[in-house]
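Appendix B. Extra example for self-study. Work through it before the problem class; the solution is given directly after the inputs so you can check yourself.
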Amino acid sequence: TQLLEQSPQFLSIQEGENLTVYCNSSSVFSSLQWYRQEPGEGPVLLVTVVTGGEVKKLKRLTFQFGDARKDSSLHITAAQPGDTGLYLCAGGNNAGNMLTFGGGTRLMVKP
Amino acid sequence: DVKVTQSSRYLVKRTGEKVFLECVQDMDHENMFWYRQDPGLGLRLIYFSYDVKMKEKGDIPEGYSVSREKKERFSLILESASTNQTSMYLCASRTEGGRLDEKLFFGSGTQLSVL
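Solution. Structure tokens for the complete assembly:
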């Protein structure tokens, strides 16, 4: 069974601060997705990375896939209260048809 | 806009009851999934379906069954609810898998409490 560990589990910061959350595994994944889930809603896809070393930017969010495709990070610059939510990483298997989810990082950004 | 609708936002049931959780998608997606979400454990796959009348066990199928009689509807059934099935249940759908950039579309979830 492939496992994904996310750290930290909880993060509370002030508006304007920078932060990084991590998603680590001993297994190789064919792809890595990041989702954000707001209270009372289902997760919504933010990004998919598929190539080792790939970096993608989405406004103030920067996503990186590790060279060995075993880990990923999400960096947020100048966090805003609207970034508050649960961030989930999910690794795709080689067939590309199944996802393994990490435990999530719950982020709170205080104004 | 794409939509995955779960029939109930909150449900309270008693131990031993048979529980039905309904999910409908309007995107003509082939694949549908049921996950449960517990704090710190992320999303764990219960069952999935690649097409009508097809079903496959996920990682934690014990105590659950599913039904997919129509393409747009995927039902999760708790045959005899137990307190350890208290959880948030999320339904998701996507087009036919096989592409690395396929994404899941999730419903808003059903918070089930079994007393």
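Self-check: DSSP finds no helices and twelve strands in chain B. If your reasoning did not lead you there, revisit section 3.
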